[in-house]
Amino acid sequence: MKEEGWMGWAFNLGLGICGLFIAANWGSLIDAMFKKRSCSFAPPFLSGLLATLLIATHPDVGLRVFWWIPPMLDPSIAFALSVTAVVALVRRIRAFAGERKLK
Question: 67 near 15, Cβ under 8 Å?
Fold first, then answer.
């Protein structure tokens, strides 16, 4: 284990807090599914993005390769990425169908 000093502790504390918010986001999502009411993510996008930033700039260089994990675990970011991928796919299909009609 490397000696990271107070900066490593601060980064780890921030990651822990972000992890708790990501867990709270999942809890609110699951609660909304069972109670059949609207779902409100506590800090939308912020916990996953902040955790990504903290990991990408962490003093322990070996931890920096895991920057991609928080966006995949945060339900609000995962949902936004899924919607973006579906919209891009639909646009490509429509563009392809439009090109075929022109030929």
Answer: no
Chain center to CA of 74: 4
- The pLDDT tens digits of the residues spanning 64-103 come to 999 889 888 888 777 777 888 888 888 888 888 776 665 5
Residue with tokens 């991609």: 68
Backbone torsions φ then ψ of 96, nearest 5 degrees? -65, -40
In the DSSP assignment, the letter for residue 67 is T
Task: Quote the tokens at residue 37.
Answer: 């009411």
- Look up the pTM and report it: 0.68
What radius of gyration, in Å, describes the C-alpha atoms of the chain? 19
Question: Could you tell me which residues come within 8 angstroms of residue 18 by beta carbon, excluding any fewer than 6 positions away?
Answer: 47, 48, 50, 51, 54, 70
Task: State residue 38's pLDDT score.
Answer: 65
- Phi–psi pair at 60, nearest 5 degrees: -80, 105
pLDDT over 60 at 3, yes or no: no
